Amino acid sequence: MENKAHDTAPGGRDFARRLIADMLRIRRMEEKCAELYGAGKIRGFLHLYIGEEACAVGALHALKEEDNIVATYREHGHALVRGVPMASIMAEMYGKASGCCRGRGGSMHLFDAARRFYGGNAIVGGGLPLAVGLALADKMQGRSRVSACFFGDGAVAEGAFHEAMNLAALWQLPVLFLCENNFYGMGTALARAEAQTDLTAKAASYRMAAAKADGMDVLAVHAATERAAARVRAGKGPLFLELQTYRFRAHSMFDPELYRDQAEVEEWKERDPLHVFPARLQAQGVLDEDEIAALDAVAEAEVAAAVEFAEAAPWEPVADLFKDVHTPEGEP
Ligand SMILES: Cc1ncc(C[n+]2csc(CCOP(=O)(O)OP(=O)(O)O)c2C)c(N)n1
Ligand SMILES: [Mg+2]
Asked: Cα(42) to centroid of ligand 2, in Å?
């Protein structure tokens, strides 16, 4: 691992609190989503990010507001940390008209153009060409933004991954490829699908700079992303950053998890970023147990308010059903 575990909180106490608060916000929101799914309030697909929170939180805190963000169908946490209000995310999950996509996107298609959050994408690898396009536009118009694209290890098997990596490198575009390697694509272990399991080697074949970081360590992710983004922003071309992480829950809500041992899951849970990071800060005397409990209570209250908002939010009227549906004749 290139980045050693970071022992201290370099950004100080407030910074550490913000990181923990955001990880807790994701965890508590998604635990509630799982419950609401069981109750039939949220339907369709639902992919939880639980276990991987240090990736989105560490990376997004290292990026700037002006940067573009592209994510996958496991993107609730990314949207939330980017600033999409939890209430509008929750209403979107419910399919309500007050959701961030007016209830038409759902869990996999959270989107907020004003916050430069360009989705949520149900297509594995589908976000990479979008990030390349955003970066090409920025380069052509002389802006020094970074287009940060999150994707899973499963995406490296897609043609779109290779096309996007090649063009980004060929045209030296400001793309930060953030691979969240949780070692599985649905029920297929990485080693069963890829001849080359060192994912940074894929970048080398496009003459692209690459690095790895411990995706369970929020400070390591933050530091690696900050370094990577500075390089990309300086016009030195794209960079591939692999974050090694693990999802604690099933792939989606329909997954009997027959492809991995419970012992492996338990082993990774010992590295839970929501235990390890707060425990480290407590041991260092940076934060105490009450402060961490208070952050948790704030997250729980935000979740309760978001659910209340979603419950009360209106459905889109049936009369609007054909709104935004386009046909060659102009009429549905
Ligand atoms: C182009 C395409 N092929 C197949 C699928 C079905 N599918 C959904 S998720 C998934 C696994 C992707 O795994 P990974 O990229 O590692 O992301 P993770 O779920 O682990 O976050 C697959 C194959 C899809 N959505 N899109
Ligand atoms: Mg994966």
From this structure: 23
* Region for residue 125 given its phi and psi (left: phi exceeds 0; alpha: psi -120 to 50; beta: otherwise): left
The answer, yes or no, to whether any atom of ligand 1 lies below 6 A from the CB of 154, is yes
Q: Which amino acid is at 31?
A: E
Beta strands in 89-218 (DSSP E): 147-152, 175-181, 184-185, 188-189, 209-214
The answer to whether the CB of 72 falls within 8 A of the CB of 110 is no
Question: Where do the domains of the chain lie?
Answer: 14-320
Distance 21 CA to ligand 1 centre (A): 29
Ligand nearest to the CA of 121: 1
Which mutation among 70, 128, 186 tests ligand 1's pocket best, with the greatest number of atoms within 8 A of CB?
A: 186
Ligand 1 in reach of 184 Cβ (< 6 A): yes
Using a 6 Å cutoff on CB, does residue 127 contact ligand 1?
A: no
186 lines ligand 1 (CB under 6 A): yes
The reply to whether CATH 3.40.718.10 applies to domain 14-320 is: no
- β-bridge mates for residue 241, sequence order: 178, 211
pLDDT per residue, tens digit, the chain (332 aa), is 343 444 455 678 999 999 999 999 999 999 999 999 999 999 999 999 999 999 999 999 999 999 999 999 999 999 999 999 999 999 999 999 999 999 999 999 999 999 999 999 999 999 999 999 999 999 999 999 999 999 999 999 999 999 999 999 999 999 999 999 999 999 999 999 999 999 999 999 999 999 999 999 999 999 999 999 999 999 999 999 999 999 999 999 889 999 999 999 999 999 999 999 999 999 999 999 999 999 999 999 999 999 999 999 999 999 998 898 888 776 55
